[in-house]
Amino acid sequence: MRRSLVIVGAGPRATGILERLGANAAEMYGDAGLDIHLVDPYPPGGGRIWRHDQSPLLWMNSQAQDVTMFTDETVEVAGPVLPGPALHEWTGRDGRAFLGRREQSAYLRWVYEKAVAALPEGVVVHHHRRRALRVTGARDTRQEVALEGVDAPLDADLVILAQGHLDAELDHEQSDLAAYAERTGLVHLPPDFTADTDLSPLEPGAPVIVRGFGLAFVDLMVLLTEGRGGRYEGDTYHPSGREPILYVGSRRGVPYRSKIGYDWDGERPPLPRYLGPAQIDGLLARPDGYDFRRDVWPLVEKELGFAHYHRLFAAHPDRTRTAWTDFDEKYAACDPGSPELDALVASAVPDPADRLDLTALDHPLAGVRHTSYAALQDGLRAHIADDLARRHDPGHSPDLAVFLGLLSVYGQLMRLGDVGTWWHGFFSYLASGPPGPRLKQLLALSRAGVVRFLGADVQVSAGDGVFRAQSPTLPGQITEARALVEARLPQPTLARTRDPLLRALHAEGAASTAAGLLAVDPADGRVLDRAGTPHPRRFALGPHTDARGAGAFTRPRTNSPTFRQNDATARAVLDFLRTHRTTTTRGTHDAAQ
């Protein structure tokens, strides 16, 4: 009987697993036959999020030089390293360009086809353009994967769940707002992937309250302005007249920080330094567990501070008062967040603007109160303009060092599994912001009156036939609209996911974390039950698990945790297929559907 592997999902994660299966097959599997079934209603390579069929106005959020699907010599994997072109090399475009998502889709399709072509001759890939509904089967028998619209399930020796980003049912607040909108004829667009959202109910010239100021908002902004015929001339936006008026606010009240617009030069900070494998080992060894804010965050703060000051002393010594060796020795001896550390920094770095203040970064409008609507608009435009200038000025290169520190920290924290949602939001705010040109467009839209700012800690309510939004940033100001857009992605929790397979797994005993993520074995991605026992035949990788990665794609030469995960899972799969006898409790089925 031929061996069979089902991979649910056919996007970038599944493509990366296929590449690692091919890379390791010669050593671990030889020329034995294997059927690989990809189950996804969307095209292989890009999958749903990166499919070609979306607006050409939508860009990637990373520079082309920062996107690769191939391992390099920095990646610590047991399998072979097989280098390949990064996105800018494959397209022949400027590495600093932000390419369209359609170009990324073409790259991913090429990587997928290359990965399939590299598989041994006896390995055949089948794509099923359907949804997977359920996986069943005992731990010691083949699994069965039920497909939508098909009577006979797929038989599989092993199953890998790589669905990527998932839709979710509404939470209690969203359900109440949606119900109110339905009763009163309002428009309520819940958290969703903006490229998939029907925006036609948002009428030209009508006010729309938008809650969320991250990347989902940027897509919304693009589709409702240029996407409706508006155009830019330099720093001026010329409306088409078809745009709604977007009143946007969020918890922070400001957009994510701009992507940094210059390259690194000189020595990189030697990371990790204060949050590395030894510290993670110590946290994992605690018999009573750990608390993120109490035990982990101080280490994160000190690690990011080290990256910041290492760069400041190396590249801008005229803005410091002491020698780096003296500062480094004293910094190492200070407890994270201690008064001694604050005093050391104050004595060595005279300008407060050169000191790293993560709390201020995370709460940019804390304590800010405006007395007029116009002052709020001017204040937010000044904040965005200042951020753009700073993030494109190498004189502030410690910001880039902190970015590198964030990448290092994220790679270490993945070993801890679920560390809660706050960290991921903080990381995204500082490290996954929009391209600078998008923020320039935002400023132009604000000056044109198409986008209007609400402030921080925005509260939304519904009553008297309208939605209302207000913020303490402008006390007493209430904005009313008949449309509300929740500009953020759904949270990938097992309890609220619309993926029927994952919901069934959870109901049948798969473990979830405190944040509702699917719990997996960090060693190879095997799904854990509630007793912490790995399922021998089921694996899961991606944002719906507690082994989720630091972003959509991997930067070259960063020892990517995603690549390490893919390699470990692929080797575990091949080892199992090679060493375990195929058993089943039922007949086999034709796999080609």
From TrEMBL:
InterPro entries for the chain: FAD/NAD-bd_sf, HpyO/CreE_NAD-binding, L-asp_N-monooxygenase_NS-form
Domain FAD-dependent urate hydroxylase HpyO/Asp monooxygenase CreE-like FAD/NAD(P)-binding: 6-165
Region of interest: Disordered: 533-563
Pfam families per record: NAD_binding_9
Domain of life: Bacteria
Signal sequence coordinates: none
Name of the protein: Adenylate cyclase
Originating species: Streptomyces venezuelae
